[in-house]
């Protein structure tokens, strides 16, 4: 099984604070990073020909991390790169449900959904999605 190179892991548009005191943003970023690491471990299992174990890891992340839009977006892209278009659409849908105020994350999810529609030869649907995004700016 040949696995394509995945898109760059998401950066959250901010770095860790320079102060040494713990804060909420730091804790959230650490939690996100842990989820992303688990996704990478699942992909590593697949690359090591432990396909079922890797897919199980990815499914567990989708089940338990669905409230974190950045994690679901990364997972949606992983599913897409693996050729699991239905799972990619589900994960991208979770992003749209959870990322109501995160315009950049929503945009990436909508672009991925349009890309999936193109791959599924749903050209009219993809065109409508892309025009909606263009009109929204």
Brief write-up:
This protein has about 140 residues and is mostly helical. It has 6 helices and no strands.
Please describe what this structure looks like.
Helices cover 71% and strands 0% of the residues. With 137 residues, the chain is mainly α. It contains 6 helices and no strands. The protein has helices spanning 24-47, 51-64, 69-82, 85-98, 103-119, 123-136. The longest helix has 24 residues, at 24-47. Helix 3 (69-82) packs antiparallel against helix 4 (85-98).
SSE blueprint and pairings:
Layout: H1 24-47, H2 51-64, H3 69-82, H4 85-98, H5 103-119, H6 123-136
Helix pairs in contact: 1-2, 1-3, 3-4, 3-5, 4-5, 5-6
Taking the sheet with the most strands, its summary is: none
Kindly name the structural category.
Answer: mainly alpha
**Residue windows where pLDDT falls under 50 for at least 5 positions:** 1-6, 11-27
In terms of DSSP E residues, the strand content is under 5%
Query: What's the N-to-C terminus distance?
Result: 38 Å
Work out the helicity level.
Answer: over 70%
Radius of gyration: 16 Å
Mean pLDDT, rounded to whole units?
A: 81
Write the H/E string, N to C.
HHHHHH
